[in-house]
Design brief:
The strands form 2 sheets. A 3-stranded mixed beta sheet has the order 1-5-2, with no helix packed on it. Helix content is 0%, strand content 49%. It has one domain. By secondary structure, it is mostly beta strands. It is elongated, with a radius of gyration of 11 Å. It starts with 12 loop residues before the first strand and ends with a strand.
Protein backbone atom coordinates (compact mmCIF):
# COMPACT_ATOMS: atom_id res chain seq x y z
CA UNK A 1 0.00 0.00 0.00
CA UNK A 2 1.36 3.38 -0.95
CA UNK A 3 1.29 5.81 1.96
CA UNK A 4 2.78 8.92 0.32
CA UNK A 5 0.54 11.93 0.94
CA UNK A 6 -1.70 10.20 3.49
CA UNK A 7 -2.13 11.58 7.00
CA UNK A 8 0.06 10.12 9.76
CA UNK A 9 -1.91 7.94 12.19
CA UNK A 10 0.02 6.73 15.26
CA UNK A 11 -2.34 3.73 15.51
CA UNK A 12 -1.06 2.49 12.12
CA UNK A 13 2.32 4.17 11.57
CA UNK A 14 5.63 4.58 13.37
CA UNK A 15 7.42 7.85 12.59
CA UNK A 16 11.13 7.14 12.27
CA UNK A 17 12.06 10.53 10.81
CA UNK A 18 10.69 14.02 10.32
CA UNK A 19 11.32 16.16 7.25
CA UNK A 20 10.42 19.66 6.10
CA UNK A 21 8.60 19.78 2.78
CA UNK A 22 6.64 22.87 1.71
CA UNK A 23 4.69 20.81 -0.86
CA UNK A 24 3.18 18.57 1.83
CA UNK A 25 0.83 19.50 4.64
CA UNK A 26 1.15 19.00 8.38
CA UNK A 27 1.61 15.34 9.41
CA UNK A 28 1.55 14.01 5.84
CA UNK A 29 3.62 10.93 5.08
CA UNK A 30 6.61 11.72 2.86
CA UNK A 31 8.12 8.24 2.53
CA UNK A 32 7.42 4.66 3.60
CA UNK A 33 10.51 2.75 4.76
CA UNK A 34 8.83 -0.51 5.75
CA UNK A 35 5.30 -1.74 5.07
CA UNK A 36 2.88 -2.34 7.91
CA UNK A 37 0.50 -5.26 8.24
CA UNK A 38 -2.95 -5.83 9.72
CA UNK A 39 -5.05 -8.94 10.24
CA UNK A 40 -8.64 -7.82 10.45
CA UNK A 41 -8.56 -4.76 12.69
CA UNK A 42 -5.43 -5.84 14.63
CA UNK A 43 -2.11 -4.20 13.69
CA UNK A 44 0.60 -6.86 13.35
CA UNK A 45 3.40 -4.43 12.40
CA UNK A 46 3.26 -0.64 12.17
CA UNK A 47 4.45 0.95 8.93
CA UNK A 48 7.75 2.82 9.37
CA UNK A 49 7.42 6.25 7.76
CA UNK A 50 8.95 9.71 7.39
CA UNK A 51 6.51 12.47 8.34
CA UNK A 52 6.52 15.98 6.83
CA UNK A 53 6.46 19.26 8.75
Amino acid sequence: MKLFGKTFDPELHEAVSSVTDEKLGEKEIKEEYQAGYKIGSKVIRHAMVAVAN
